Amino acid sequence: MAVYLLMRIEPKVEDRAAQPYLGFKGVVTMQAIATIADRLPELFDWLAERGIEPAGAPFFKYDVIAMGDRLEIEVGVPVAVRVPGDGDVSAGVLPAGRYAVVSHVGHPDELMDVTGALLGWAVEQGLAWDVVEEPDGEHWGCRLEVYRTNPAEEPDLAKWETDLVFRLKG
Question: What are the φ and ψ backbone dihedral angles of 114, each rounded to 5 degrees?
């Protein structure tokens, strides 16, 4: 049995439009992801102070992955229209394109296994990722973990809903 069948929902490929967002960037280790993740409340406060409504769930965007060394990562929130960043808050656009998507319900600690299964599924399907190998790590065109559960409403991490959304080449 293929590993991806162990996931609760089978991956799918979907076309996505470009999506503006605001977020914080950081360079962290796997062990220190919380230092950037913990800035999400600050980002929501920044949006609220300016009357900007989120246009979707918050996400982690992995720009460069050098496992065992460092991650260049962003925590972000989609917005309806592009607005400029300010200070530490940067503005960006998630690129349009074809994406492999899988939804997971469970503890965030399980996401590494789900990610491995998604990567394996793509190989079995003959799909190629929008990623370039460089000496400093994998540079991804767009690789997201979208957190659809509000921790204030659902404190049980085993019930959290997360989408993995990885852009495909071409």
Answer: -65, -40
Q: In the beta sheet, which residues pair with residue 12?
A: 101
pLDDT tens by residue, 12-55: 999 999 999 999 999 999 889 889 999 999 999 999 999 999 99
pLDDT at 2: 46
Q: Where are the domains of the chain?
A: 1-13+101-170, 19-94
CATH number of 1-13+101-170: 3.20.80.10
**E runs forming strands in the chain:** 12-16, 19-28, 59-66, 70-78, 90-94, 97-105, 131-134, 137-140, 143-147, 161-167
- The DSSP bridge pattern shows strands 70-78 and 19-28 to be antiparallel
Task: Dig out the tokens for 40 from the structure.
Answer: 């999400």
Indicate the pTM of the whole model. 0.92
Nearest to 102 by CA among 160, 156, 166: 166
The residue length of the chain stands at: 170
**Taking the domain 19-94, which CATH number applies?**
3.20.80.10
Q: Could you tell me the pLDDT band of residue 9, with boundaries at 50, 70 and 90?
A: low
**CA 53 – CA 161 distance, rounded (Å):** 21
